[in-house]
Fold each of these.
Amino acid sequence: MEVEIRPALGNYDGFFEVVGVKKPGGRGCWCMAYRDSRVGNDDRPAYMRAECETAPGPGVLAYVGGEPAGWCSVAPRSSYRRLMNSRTIPFVDDRDAWSVVCFVIRPPYRRQGLMHDLLAGAVRHAAEHGAEVVEGYPVLTAGTRVDVISGYVGTTTLFERAGFEPVLETSAHSGGRVRWLMRRELA
């Protein structure tokens, strides 16, 4: 399986293919839950198109055989309104860590390890844009399987395999599971 990780910068069409809502009048996240959930459903495509046209872009995309297959949202924490105002995911220090907040894998490409490729690409993207540290907020799995809906934040095992270290247990949850703040120092 040939996997290529590309920045979303200049790749709105790939972003739309993975994350966009195709059903007319359909509702969806559009990766806005952490950015600014106040943006109305009808305005989300234009908002994310603008994000994909503005450096450093809103994240990275996985392409398999040239087809858009997956998405990872990664950007400076300060660009995520929900994180800046979070009562459940605390700040660790004064640095503007880059935050990995979600993954989306298109159904035909699931269970093939793309989240590992996406996380590695997200770290690389952050480093190329001067990040000192990258953090994520995955769920603790304790050896059990995570459902697709709750697993969008990743797992502690995924992050550990990518060189992240657990910093603290947050009071945030996904699918009833505890989320950890995990970090990887780059500088």
Amino acid sequence: MTSEEKKIRAAVRLLEKHGYTVTPPAEPVVIDVTEINRRKMEPRRQAFIESMRAFVGKYSNEMLNEFYAYWTEPNKTFTKMRFEMQKTWDLALRLNTWYRNNQRRNNGRKQITDNDRAEKLAGILLG
């Protein structure tokens, strides 16, 4: 036992002798700032999803999911998403650009989704 621990024990005994109740200190509270920031970000992420709902019929679900995954990527501290760090933001214009870039990458070929494949296969099997 160190001299400091002896002093602390002596002080505790003296306090208890005079009617004080001495309890050990509480465990330190650890605050996970990243988790707090993630929770704060969630309503903004949901608002982004809601704003994208207007474009569900215009663009494929696959494209919208890719767009969402890209633009809602958080920064390292989870305080902002990628789209929130842009100087300017217009969802309709960004989606249009995303769509146009996808078309260029595919050389104008139509992307076939799993639903399209299933329908085509059903058509072949059912004759």
Amino acid sequence: MTRQTARRSRNRPAPPEGRLLAVRARLQFPVALFGLALSLDAPAAFAAHPLQTEDTGTQGAANVEIENGLSRARFDSTTLTVYQPQVSVGLATTVDAIVQPSVVWQHSPGQSSTSGLGDTNIDGKWRFWGSDPWSFAIRAGVLAPTSQKGLGLPHGDVSEHALLVATWDGTPTTVHANLGLTRVPRAPGTRETIAHVSAAVMQQINEKLILTADGEVDQDPDASRKTWPGSLLLGVIWTAKPGLDLDVGWQRSFSAQPVNRQWMAGLTYRFSL
């Protein structure tokens, strides 16, 4: 039987604010930068912070996880800081309800700074099969246009996303893999559906320390481009005490313009109702 709350099986995804690489192509600067930053964010998106790849772990009935993620990304001379908390509530042993809002601060030299609410992920997660060391799950939902000051999707538009998740738990090594699709409102010259592939490795050093490596590629939202922009993320997770984790991570994008370099930190707390 798959563990319902594995040692590091927690809910970034991924993140990634619904894989908002599509927003980068669809919207104008600075919203484009915001979309790219969130698509490359760890919690990103969907996974255990600072990972961007989702795992199959669920909280278990009446258990709650609050994940606080803070990231600071730089695109050329523009700096984006994003606070992205995520609340996951176990509705059943294998089913979670997830809400993930965001707050954004943007600064560009010579321009006034902008800050406000970003968009909000509203998701469900279902682990539908498990037999050690393998388990499989689906996470799906919508990115709701809750942003202010143009820091996200235009109001009235909704982006849908879905991830197929696989986890192999060969303690002390755990591997996660994702295949995903994100749909965004169509704009001329852009793809309406964006494919996503990612994988992560977690190496448990001892009871308190885990090292992580995570890589992803996403289909370019520009329909004329065949490249798949991607990123690599390295991180450390430290368990301060049972139910309380602290983490840090660093990420760099590849084959994407502008190049994104990003630092992130997180604090995750779990408790029972």
Amino acid sequence: MVAQLLTLPRLKKRLSEKKIWNYLNQFQKEHKGAHFTRIESATINGIPDVYCVFDKYMFWLELKANEVKNCNISKFQTAWHLKHKRSGGNSFILNWPLKYQPPKLLEVREPGHVVPVPVPAVPVPVLQILLWLEDHV
């Protein structure tokens, strides 16, 4: 019986980076203080997918929808995040592989490990986005 419940189609609903972007885009349409720009770059290795400004807080988001170790972050992405952070910038990885689970906020830390951002350390505007995603999907 439990195995049958776990295989229900709604529980296996996989998300994609495009679908996560669609949710973020919906968020910005509903929130006056939000401005998100999706970046598609073949010239800058490692640059995150979305540049965000929300309630005057600026940050980058790398969108991921997988359950593999380190979220399958490339060496170029790791280097970009580390350099950006060393320069005082804010960047995160939003990993959300399954719709029925809440999204996870991660970051790249020295020496290049992908780790969860502890809830007390999540900036308020980013936390608002995460909570909205959990409530509206």
